[in-house]
Design goal:
The protein is an alpha+beta fold. It is built from 13 helices and nine strands. A four-stranded antiparallel beta sheet has the order 1-2-3-4, with helices on one face. The protein has a three-stranded antiparallel beta sheet with strand order 5-9-8. The protein has a two-stranded antiparallel sheet with strand order 6-7. β6 and β7 form a beta hairpin.
């Protein structure tokens, strides 16, 4: 029993939970499911509970998919990951938007035509044809990765077949492997970098990609400023929008593929969209334990930039000597950390 406001009685009531068959209409089709609902004992009306109703609608949509023979969200995700494709790349091959694939994987009911287009991708031959026709819409590394998976599948299992359980484990991120001033005198560690990004996503949530790039930069350069060693070993490049990790596209796509982050396309109005990062479902698999000093750096960066917009942190980074003193597209020297505008209090 719980006390909930009943809009019919206009009073708080000790509600009860009942199992009922309820009928819903989804795209003109009636779907009946047995669900638990919260009921007012006085008037007998169902009382709305956002979390409970969201669960009910997931069951309704699941039932609708079963009756209509549509793919489930997990099946859609499995087909995409069969070829080591990001949501953006999969959408590009299918002629859809990343937001559409994101919605389907998060539980929205797909259009029949979209379902058939996605289902056809179970065939490696079909995906090879898509790569041939639309592969130029993918980044070079993403296309190479998908082609590598397809090539291995066809070689091992024969034409027209693929290993559905195959997991991409090849090298995809092009980062300098040396220890130098451009890596902050630490060899680049993908695990460390993923742990930092996952920590930031958990701490701040819904971080635009532009902001993640800058937060990583400040974490590494502030750590170097205090210890003469970067935290992740990540090299940074100067581009028009500010400092970014070298090969940041492959870096974040690999993190999304590994489940350490989730990437959502967000609409900002006037046709402008951008990627927003959330902590991923497998982030807990990252076993890196930050030292007290590393946590101090992370907390300082999170507190300092919390509430900032992507534009504000971008413009702020443009004033750093690390940006102004580095030629366009070149790697930024960690020597520039000594002139960073921020310092962690002792």
């Amino acid at each position: 029993m719980s006390e909930t406001f009943c809009p019919t009685c206009q009073e708080y009531r000790e509600t009860r939970i009942e199992a009922r068959d309820e009928t819903y209409t989804v795209r003109g089709r009636t779907v009946t499911v047995n669900v638990e609902v919260e009921v007012c004992p006085t008037c007998g009306q169902t009382v709305f509970q956002e979390d409970r109703d969201a669960g009910v609608m997931r069951r309704v949509y699941d039932a609708y998919r079963r009756e209509e023979g549509l793919l489930t969200p997990d099946e859609i995700k499995a087909i995409r990951k069969q070829y080591a494709l990001s949501q953006r790349s999969f959408a590009a091959l299918l002629g859809m938007s990343q937001a559409t694939i994101n919605r389907y994987e998060r539980g929205a009911v797909q259009e029949r035509a979209h379902d058939e287009a996605i289902r056809a991708c179970r065939s490696p031959d079909h995906v090879l044809g898509l790569l041939d026709r639309r592969g130029n819409s993918l980044s070079e590394w993403q296309r190479r990765r998908a082609e590598s998976v397809l090539a291995d599948s066809v070689t091992e299992l024969g034409p027209g077949t693929a290993d559905l359980n195959r997991v991409w484990d090849g090298p995809t991120i092009s980062m300098p492997s040396d220890i130098s001033i451009h890596t902050g005198y630490r060899r680049f560690s993908y695990a460390r970098c993923a742990a930092v990004v996952a920590w930031l996503c958990k701490r701040l949530d819904a971080i635009p990609k532009t902001m993640v790039n800058k937060l990583l930069f400040y974490v590494d350069f502030l750590h170097f400023k205090r210890t003469t060693m970067s935290l992740t070993g990540c090299p940074y490049r100067r581009i028009q929008h500010g400092p970014v990790p070298a090969d940041y596209g492959a870096l974040f796509s690999q993190m999304e593929w590994d489940g350490y982050i989730e990437v959502e396309e967000k609409a900002y109005g006037d046709g402008v969209t951008g990627d927003v990062f959330h902590v991923g479902t497998r982030a807990s698999d990252l076993r890196h334990e930050f030292t007290p000093h590393e946590l101090a750096v992370l907390e300082f960066v999170a507190r300092h930039f919390q509430g900032w917009t992507a534009k504000r942190i971008r413009d702020y980074s443009h004033r750093e000597s690390a940006f102004t003193n580095t030629p366009d597209r070149e790697l930024i020297s960690y020597d520039q950390a000594m002139d960073l505008s921020l310092s962690i209090p002792e």
